[in-house]
Each structure stands twice: as structure tokens, then as C-alpha cells.
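Retry 2 of 3 after timeout on previous attempt. Resubmitting C-alpha cells to design endpoint.
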């Protein structure tokens, strides 16, 4: 299985620190992820306090696995819990208190037999920052092109 990447994450946000977590999934959801049926558009990670704080992947659309049959109560955008240690959650919550930071998913991949989610603490980019990054990328592409043909 290849990585499923959130392509808008690095364009819309400045990545500050990355983390890795497991996901709580149903069996047919694991198969759907292995078939690349996950869409990150509009997804984010939220903190919910049951008695203790926990992180959840919200609004990530995971299509129903075709061979699973008809599951009438299946919600493709249900919140999915992230598996992290208490210390990691505490560290993330401490850093999240800074103004302007958010947690966004970057990619999903398999590690041995487990499905892992790579997510990051990020700060949103302003419009002019996005334009600057695009210009810089175009200049670097042009430099690589000219060096390649010489």
C-alpha cells in the first residue's frame, strides 16, 4: 500500500512538528484504506474530553469497502480515535494552547500490519505566504530544468 497523502496540508499550513499515531478502525475500514479509499479534504483532528482527553480524526471521508456488502448504519465521516500515549497527548495539548495552532492529518500508511496516521501541529499560512512559496517552487523547478539540459 502506498501512502495516502493530504496534498493541501503543506500548501495551506506551515508544518511545525509531526507525530505518528494508530487509528481505531473496523475491519472493512482497514481494507478500504488499503484500497486507497480515504479522502482528507476538509479533515482535521479535534480534542474531545470524555473523562480524559483524546484526539479524534474528524471529517475524513472513508468510503465503504465494496466487498463488505451493505452496512446500513455506516457513516463514512465518523470520528476515528487516535491511539497515543498520555504523555504525547499532554505534550500536544500544551503546545496547542499557543494562538493560531491547529492539528491536521498529513498521511495514512501501513507499518507492519498496522494502519498509522501521520499528523502535525501547524500554523495557517496567509495568502501572500502561499504565493511566495509557489514562486519559490517555480524558480527552483526552472533552475533544475536549466541544469538538467546543460
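Retry 2 succeeded. Sequence:
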Amino acid at each position: 500500500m502506498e501512502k495516502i497523502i493530504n496534498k493541501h496540508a503543506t500548501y495551506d499550513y506551515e508544518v511545525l512538528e509531526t507525530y505518528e499515531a494508530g487509528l481505531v478502525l473496523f475491519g472493512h475500514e482497514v481494507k478500504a484504506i488499503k484500497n486507497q479509499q480515504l479522502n482528507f479534504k476538509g479533515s482535521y483532528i479535534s480534542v474531545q474530553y470524555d473523562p480524559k482527553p483524546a484526539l479524534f480524526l474528524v471529517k475524513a471521508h472513508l468510503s465503504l469497502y465494496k466487498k463488505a456488502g451493505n452496512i446500513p448504519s455506516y457513516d463514512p465521516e465518523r470520528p476515528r480515535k487516535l491511539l497515543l500515549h498520555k504523555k504525547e497527548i499532554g505534550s500536544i495539548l500544551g503546545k496547542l494552547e499557543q494562538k493560531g495552532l491547529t492539528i491536521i492529518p498529513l498521511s495514512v500508511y501501513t507499518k507492519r500490519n498496522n494502519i498509522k496516521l501521520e499528523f502535525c501541529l501547524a500554523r495557517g499560512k496567509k495568502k501572500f505566504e502561499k504565493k511566495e512559496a509557489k514562486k519559490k517552487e517555480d524558480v527552483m523547478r526552472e533552475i533544475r530544468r536549466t541544469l538538467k539540459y546543460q
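Attempt log closed. Helices lie at 9-12, 27-34, 86-96, 127-148.
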